[in-house]
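Here we describe the complex-level prediction in full. Unlike the single-chain runs in Section 2.1, the three entities below were treated as one system.
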Amino acid sequence: MKKAELTGTQRTIKLLQLLLIIIPFTLPLWVQNEYYVHSMLGRIFIYTILVVSLDLVVGYIGDISIGHAGLFAVGAYTMGILNSTAAVNAGSTMQLFLEWPFMPALIVSVIVTGFFGFLLGFPSLRTSGPYLAVTTIAYGLIIYTFINEQEGLTNGTKGIQMAPLNFFGVNFNDNKFIWVVYPFLLLVMYLKTNLSKSFWGRAFEAIKFSNIAAESSGISKVRFKLTAFVMSACIAGLAGALFTHLDSYIAPNTFSLDFSILALMALIFGGVRSTFGNIIGMALVVILPDLFTWFKDYRLMVFGLLLLLTLFFLPNGLAGLLRKWFPKVFEEPKPIFTASDKSKIEFQMEKCVDGHIPLALDQVEMRFGGLVAVNKLDLKVQPGTIHGLMGPNGSGKSTTVNVITGLYNQTTGDVSAFGKSIGKLKPYERAQLGIARTFQNLQLFGDLTVLENVQVGLHKHYKSSFFAILLGLPSVKKEETGKQIEAYRLLEFVGLEHLANEQAKNLAYGQSRRLEIARAMALSPKLILLDEPAAGLTTSEIKEFNEIILKIKSAGIAVLLIEHHMDMMMEISDEITVLDFGKKIAEGIPSVVQKNPEVVKAYLGAEGALDA
Amino acid sequence: MTEVLQLIISGAIQGMIYALIAFGYNLTFSTSKTINFSLGQIVMLGGVVGYILYIDMQTGHLKGLPFVVPLLGVLVIGTLAGALVHKTAVEPSLKFKSEYTWILATLAVGIIIKNGVEQLWSTGDYKMISPLGDEVIRIGGIGVYAQEILIVVVSLGIVCGVEMFKRRTIYGKAIQAVSEDKATASLMGIPEKFVITVSFMMSACIAAIAGLLVAPLTFVSASMGMVLGIKAYSVSIIGGLESGYGPLVGGLILGISETLTARYISTGYKEMPGFIILIVVILFKPNGLFGKKIIKKV
Amino acid sequence: MKRNVILASLICLAMIGCSKKSDDIKIGVYGPFSGGSAPMGVSMRNGAKIAVEEINAAGGVLGKKLALVDRDDEAKNERGGQIMQELLDKENVVAVLGPANTGVANASTQYTQQKKVPQIINVAAGAKVNEFFATNPENYIFRIAASDDIQSKVIVGQALKRGAKKVALLCDDTNYGQNGREKMEAVLASAGVKPVYVGKFKIKDTDMTAQLQEAKAAGADVILAYGIGPELAAVSNSMDRISWKVPMIGSWTLSMSNYTTNAGKNGNGTMMPQTFIEANAQTPKQQQFLKTYQEKFKESPISSAVSAAQGYDSVYLLKLAIEQAGNTEGTAIKNALENLNASYEGLTGNYTKPFSSTDHEAIKEANVTLGMVQDGKIISSGN
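The structure predicted for the assembly as a whole is:
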């Protein structure tokens, strides 16, 4: 793989960026005015940390949180309780003053808030959209009420006064406060950027687009969602803990619903999934009231209008706008592949050599209420063969696939793969065992590039640890490059290598179908389920497809092909099972099944109706 | 014993108000799959417009107009507000696939309405006089305002009326068809956009009437809608956004839990049980107590 | 094209944002001008505006005009901190008046203190003022408002004078209400009385039945309430609902129109400490003020007359101090405030040496009278 060369302008831009990053460090040295530095910039930095935290949940996982003020409050109050002193809180009802130093208190605040994030994560596993939104609101309000009522612990509504921040005898409550806050902002942004560019970031986006497709690529929704919520909470807790020292005073009324909404607005103003957007969005929200002073008391109305306009005319926020205007500045380097990356030998796959039966269904029944979608089905796929599963619409084909991949849990019976029962495993566990699938209704991750889509499929092959990724260790970069080449070769396999850096949503229909196969192959499966891969394809495309499927077979992978396309089925299948109304009506080699009178009846019945 | 009964009755009445507003949420959710976060502010609009038409602000006395005038005024403002929210916030949002667009857009409209009322009308709190008088009716030691009885009657009437409308009339069936499957409904010749607009108008009218109904009990102010809006939203979710009579049960649960907690645990914690119930319901019945279970199709 | 237009308008906006220099003496005013406690903030600002206009019409101070720089803190603490720094470091005001909310004051007074700019708190009764002397002998925070200390003394004193034995406290759960509760409990304790019931309520609560039933069950014979108008009215209305009638004495906010009109007949007899009673306006100055206020802001009765009067008086005290100091330097003004030579006949009382270097509270117990609600008006209770 070639390293992207920097052009002259790009080098200048890099230099400017570096300068921009360094400038805030110098501010306390030459700016006296505390309004612009301590109050505005300090506030912007702290709140931006909160926005970064919200972005993890909203931008990456795609869940709405209107309760982040609650997490912010947990961080702030943990810091308040641990770090504040009895001296500055004379006469308060607070009973406990631990008077810890700043840093340990900060670390504990982050950990405690992380725990609260863990709890908030659970509802997000069960629900989304308006249901989740109200849960987060309730969560925030519960925290608020608790803080407001536990006077012995938090001094209730009267709030906690903080002692001035002192390090080595120097007071940091003036412009020097930037030196405390800014490094944390940079750290958080660095960690988040590393994470978002790794397979973790792709896993988040995969879950956002389709958690079914993500699970089928071996990604555990539970693990990644909860981790995202915990991380988000840790960052929010950090922001809260720093906030206590901004005005040296915290009281519950700061952490109200309004504040959660404000953070959400800042995120949208700036644009999700953009480090730059996070900071510019919050900067705007903090500075706007100042700029809007001349709107007097109509300020909020103007704010509301501006928000509406942003939502509809700048759906990607200000960062999106800037990206459009100055593409050079914001362009991410794309991997460039050279001839040496191409596979010199014919593509090779992990073979299913252990001799076990790749897939066996034993008396599987699937009921939805009174409806029996699959009725006592027995099915065996032999190693290294293409097994066809066909039947008219509504015969239970897709339900069978969903039972095999674990999206539905069979009502009775059992499913086993590679000699083990998998009937109770989660979808992602089955994927990791080596069962890959494609979808009848395309489930690509639209915002990711074609290459990244395949990289999502490679998920289970990534070995880097979470912390190595956060820190951006060289080994992580090396692994990423290696996996990019692997993904590129998979694209070659389906003939999409020339589109590697295109966004998946821009692909033509036939190309999307191939990408699904490449993504499924990335799992290095021993069994692959193709759910109506030819639906909507032209005859010549189907031909190409057959070749791909035969190539998969020749690599030693068992294939379960679901189709109602008779011709295709007859041409490439080794064995065929026919379903009708959830029941198996025929099974055997294609030429025999074709002549089975029941099959003819089921099919002619359906096709006859179509003809009429 | 009477004390407990009094608390339960007060809670139930409060719950009816939540249920009525929650019903407004359900109506628009079923057609547009969005939640109108400005509904609380529309409740406030109803209260404020009703007050302006009924009471003389300077003296705090009745203007002498019959109660029909504020009632009509509230219906008009409700219809307008519903159309406005739909046109400016929801319809443009539906073009975007993201979930937060409509949340923030409706919130923004709410902010504009609230700030508008504060600036054009007043930031103060005012007392609305009930058309039925402010006397307390006592039944066996339990005090109830006539207005509260009105609230219960009107709420039940509206909820049952709208459910009947949805089930029995052709327009109601159109709403249900759009809620089940937009694409098919529009293929069948149902003007999908129009149905959504109408559902927003109906929802806003219900909210505005709720505002007029609670006004004599709560005071009229620009900030009266916020809390009501959020609690009704919780009620909607507890009962199930896609259920017809679910909000009534949700409302009773929330209302009664509030008064009982306030009396026997602590007034500070009165909202806690409601929110905890909400989270528990979401964890065990993600579609609400009476919601339909949705089967994922792949 | 579109891009240029937007860029150009952004630059314009930025230019407007840059404030122009002027010769006026800038005074910062902050308080809640929107949201639930707006009546206090807006009335206070209106009062201050009237004072500034009068002073400017009469030739200003030190030959310069006064200019108010007003900022809305939305009753949010963190906005308070931000606004204060804006007033001090961007607008470079010579003094600050406000705010109305105790929490906002707590989050912002440290900045005036640091910058050595005098601040006269003119509404927030619970904010720390004299408490700062312990850590800062050079205290820049002053107050012209009946502090919670004074109010609690008057309220509790009145209750005990009336022979109350079983006292119930009912306070809102804001900084203001809870501070008041603590102070009242302290005064009661010094008189050897322990309240039989202590309850609280939230802002915007309208049904107080639960709290009142508990108080009733505890056998309370007087209710001491601390909160703001609407919720206190709800307390009175809920008392009527459970048909229980005991005297209610509470914070000065019981005189706000949102208490008197909202409680209606249920408010009759309620008593509160007062610095300015609108219906009782006797001096020509007070009557003139009311007239100007009503002409200018079309509001009668004033939604928070006490805030308006204190806002007005705070400007005049500041004016006198600046004149005495002869310049607008913070420390000079502060010293002048502490040794004010001229006496000032204000709306809320006559002030001769209102502040000293150890006491920054302008309003003493003697300035406070006891008001009583009678048919929607505040009258002097006669004792």
